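In keeping with the milestone schedule agreed at the kick-off meeting, the structural modelling team has produced records for the first pair of proteins. Each record is given below as a sequence line and a structure-token line. The laboratory manager (R.T.) confirmed that both were archived under the project's standard naming scheme.
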Amino acid sequence: MKITAGVIGSSHTTLSLILQELPVIDVKRKKVLIAFQKRLMIKFKNCGLLNLSFMHRSISNESGYKANNERLEFLGDAILGAITATLLYERLADRNEGELAKIKSVVVSEDILSGIARELQIDTLLLLGRGEDLSGGRTKKAILADALEALIGAFYLDSGYKAAYTFVSRFIVPEITRVLDNRHYQDYKSLLQELSQRLNKTYPVYTLLKRSGPEHDRFFWVEVHVNGQAFGPGTGRNKKSAEQAAAKLAYEHFSNPPIEHSK
């Protein structure tokens, strides 16, 4: 099987058929896509392929177009995984397979990828159906992370593995460093739940203590109970962030128990 510029077999023909089914990119949209490429220091040969990477299934459902970015997301997920694995393999010669796998799972997690997508301003380029857009689709982590993977898949098809590797490395290497330094975002609610189940066979229970402020400027206080012990309050601008703050306090307590000094 012949491989050309990162594209296998007859996928060029398949891609051409898909792109023919897409709407014509108007001048205004084309300027936006060109500006995006300049900002990211990448260049697509096929602007239609770049545009496809931002097409959520909700807009294809509403418009009747058959294509959306899901196939590109599938491809980009694999390319991102291969590049991240290569970077970890090359940089962490002292880590075993299990450790590398754990680090990789964090680096390519939805939380981190959606954060990268926001930094790249992918949220402003998403093509969403009206309902999805009105329901806050541009802020949804899953949609943002998938769009980033679709962009990676699109760039791989357009320019090959080497170009994709260079592009992905620019934003994944800093995330690897953050994970190794323990400076990345962590879902403390999930971590606490796993720890609580392992240690006590119980689930954490969160209690909203109070909230204050007007609707547009609320502040929340939350306490979490783990096996009869209360931790908090955790505070935040919304209930979820306050729960995360409380969960962090409890998780750090159980992960780093205080040292008992002998008398």
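The second protein of the pair:
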Amino acid sequence: MVRVADHSAPAAGADGIARTPTGRLAIAARIATRSAAVVLLLVAWEIFARSGKVTPFMLPPFSAVVVRIYTDAITGVLWINLGLTLYRALAGFLIAAVAGIALGAAMSRLRPVRWFFDPIVSVGFPMPKIAFLPIVMLWLGVYDVSKIAMVVFDAIFPVVTATIAGLQAVDKELLWSARNMGAGERELMWQIALPAALPQILTGLQVALPIALIVAVIAEMAMGGYGLGGAMMGASRFADSRGVFAGIVEIAIVGYALIKGLAFIRARLLAWHQEAEERS
């Protein structure tokens, strides 16, 4: 009972501080400090674009890019492209997450599986998988299946390696104690090994998610069609500079939102872990 009280008191105190005016001011100041660099960059972009040293074609003002994004949002073009890009990126990411965790767990527990896949993972991880894009286009065409396949192919490697590293780092004494208490292999994996390796696995997922978005955009640029990448290439073909820069800003916002969303999920899943106490 004492241990539970010790853990709950700091959390309650932190929540109480966050609800006070001073706590809210501190949170606002921290957010402003973190976003200051981005705001300064956008201000510098606007000033330099209007200085006359570059043409609007080379660098349109940020305000003009915002107007273009707003226009695309009103007409609905933005939401179509954004939805398709997110669908391809997230579908590929989810497939890579499930398959990568399963393969990493099998490689860490089964010697024949590790013997077969370890050379493939070792060779495939550092190489640029985007080089296989022409082959994927020849085999699967230029539609969603090929784009999602490229996302899976690129995003699965960090998940596999993180899963293997996490499972290998599990305390052997913990596994030995569980076996002595009668736990079977299935209980060891689901109730002990995977929860213990979860921080490392989530780190691999945090690496794989931006890769999924990047590859989805690149695949859209190469294969054409709708999507943020395809819209940027279409704007480039028609010398629509504002459309190109609007796509860059949109991708940056989406990427930031995805990373923050996964970080939020990580904080909730690891509320029991030591890193949650260190963060608080």
